[in-house]
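Lay summary

Proteins are chains of building blocks that fold into shapes. Our project writes down both the chain and a compact code for its shape. Here are two examples, one after the other.
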Amino acid sequence: MKRLLLIAVLLTGLVLPSFAQQDGDDDRPADDIKLRRGMKMFIRQRLQLTDDEAKKFEPLLEKYLTELRDAHVKNTDPLVRQQKKAEVRLRYRDEFKPIIGEKRANRVFVEEQSFRQQIRNYLRERRERGGGRSGSLRPLKR
């Protein structure tokens, strides 16, 4: 099931590379935007969100991912970085609860880590097969 979901995400082009910058105010690389979109879709499916829940939850999830990224980038000390990221998670867990309930609010973080691990596994497998640069999200040529 996990494998199928990851393959679906990859096949829909959500993690295909594009080194061009996104138009508009957003200065994140297109890969980051596509990975976030894939993560949001993955979490939505894994938590089995209704359309109403997703409408309320997804903008909040986007803010959470942005703050988490900022906490990671702005803190060079590993312990401080870990603490800041934990503070972000605790704050957003409380914000997620009214929308999706306590149980699923806690699962957001488990599913986030699951998605990240699947992407790491996919990239590692590609490197082991000689599929290109380390960290590259380019699809294998068949």
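And here is the second example, written the same way.
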Amino acid sequence: MTRTTGLTNPPGVTRSYSTTAWNVFGRIVEVVTGGTWDEALRELLRAPLFGVRATAQSGRDA
């Protein structure tokens, strides 16, 4: 079976969005920091920038 890739619609007709890059980036952050994405956001971004001590990123944190 041969798979071809190309545009699904002509340019400018519709928009499409993919989160694949964010998924890869999140995994890289987890490997580099040794923690979860949520922990990295809290420790490396939110607290230093905003002085926030308690935040929730996902439903399991709330």
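What can we say about the second shape? The chain has a mean pLDDT of 78.
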